[in-house]
Amino acid sequence: MEKPLPPFSSPEPVEMFLAHLSLEKGCSEATTEAYGRDVMQFESVLSRQGLSLSSPEKIGRAQVRSYLAELHRQGVHKSSMGRKLSALRAFFRFCARMRMITSLPTEGVGNPKTEKRHPDLLNVDQAFALLSAPQKEKGRSEKKGPPAGAAEQTKKAWLDARDLCLAELLYGSGLRISEALALNAGRVSGASEAVRVQGKGGKERFVPLTDAARQALELWLGLRERLALPGERALFVGARGRRLNRREAQRVIDSLCKRAGLPQSVSPHGLRHSFATHLLEAGADLRSVQELLGHARLSTTQRYTHLSLARLVAVYDSAHPKAQDENN
User: Fold this and answer.
1) Other CB atoms closer than 10 Å to residue 94's CB: what's the count?
2) What is the mean pLDDT of residues 214-222?
3) What is the three-class DSSP state of 70?
C-alpha cells in the first residue's frame, strides 16, 4: 500500500494543470484528484532534492527516472508506476503547451513492462446468484417469523432494494460505478427502457435497461424517499441519506458476493466486465459492446474479451469455409 503524502500546498503549475483537466477537458472529480495525487507524489520526492514543480524547467529526465527507481524500491506495482508516469507525461505536456518548458523530461522514459491482468469476472451462474441473494435471504427470514428488531429489519429491506438496483445497473446495463453513482432520482424511472448516463470526458450515452433492472428501479424508487435526506437528488443514497460513494458501493457488492456464497468477491467494475464478457460469449459483436460500454476506442473493448476455447472453436466451425467443408 502506498504511503499517504504529507499535507503541503500544490505548486502553481500543478494547480493550473488540475484546473485544465477539470474545466477544459471535462475530467471527473475522481480523475482530477487521481492525477493530482500522482503529480504531488513526484513533487514530494523532488522536494527532498531541493527541486519543485513550481520550476518545471529545472526538472530533467534524470529526476523522472530516479522517481521510478524509488517507486520500484518501495514495491509499487508496475501498473501503478505506469499510471503515475502517465500523469507526469500529461502534466509536462501541459507545461510545454503553456511554454513553461522547452523539452519534455518524460520523453524517452518507457513504461515498466507489466503482465497483462484482466479485471475480476463472474460466470453467468455466479452473476445470477449475486443478483438473487437479497430475495433468497428475505425468503429465509420470512420462514423464521418476525425478527426482534423490526425497525432495523425494515431499514435493511430498504437497503436490500437499493443494493439490488445498483447491482442490476452494473451487471445488466454495464454502467461504470461512477456513472451509476452520478445518477439522479428525477432522471430515471422503472418505466424507462433506457437510462442516460454521463461517461468519461462528459460524453453522454443511452444504455438499455433489462426488465429486471426496471423492476429493481421501480422498487427502489418507491422506498428511496424513506432514506434520502430532504433535497438530496442522488438515485443511490447511503444509510444516512446522502449520495452513495465509491467505498460504500464496494462494500455493497462485497456483501452481495458473501450472501450469494461466491468463492471470491468482485469489484463494481467486475460486474461491468462480466456484462461485457457475457455479451461477447453470447455472440454480440464487438462494436455493439463498445457502444454499450461507452468506450472511445475499440482496442479498449477488446481487453474485455475472455472467450472460452469452446466458444472460439464454435465460431471457427460455423464461419470458416474449410471447417464447413470438413463438417459436411
Assistant:
1) 21
2) 94
3) helix
Residue 138 amino acid letter = K
User: Which helix (H) or strand (E) element contains residue 198?
Assistant: strand 194-198
What are the tens digits of pLDDT across the range 4-32?
Answer: 444 457 899 999 999 999 998 888 888 89
Residue type, 305: T
Geometric angle at alpha carbon 153, from 151 and 155, rounded to 5°: 70
C-alpha distance from residue 65 to each of 62, 71, 88, 150, 296 (Å)? 5, 10, 12, 60, 31
Write the CA distances from 195 to 184, 188, 238, integer angstroms.
Answer: 11, 6, 21
Q: Is 194 helix (H, G, I), strand (E, B) or coil?
A: strand
pLDDT digits (tens, 9 = 90+) for 159-202: 999 999 999 999 999 999 999 999 999 888 878 888 899 888 77
Name the grid cell of 4.
Answer: 499517504
**pTM higher than 0.70, yes or no?**
no
Place of cell 513504461: 111
Instruction: Determine the length of the chain.
Output: 328
Instruction: List the catalytic residues.
Output: 176, 200, 269, 272, 295, 304
Terminal Cα distance for the chain, rounded? 58
Contacts of 200 (CB under 8 A, 6+ apart): 28, 31, 176, 294, 296
The residue whose grid cell reads 503547451 is: 97
Phi, psi for 269 (deg, rounded to 5)? -65, -25
Q: Is 266 helix (H, G, I), strand (E, B) or coil?
A: coil
Is there a contact between 51 and 58 (Cβ–Cβ < 8 Å)?
Answer: yes
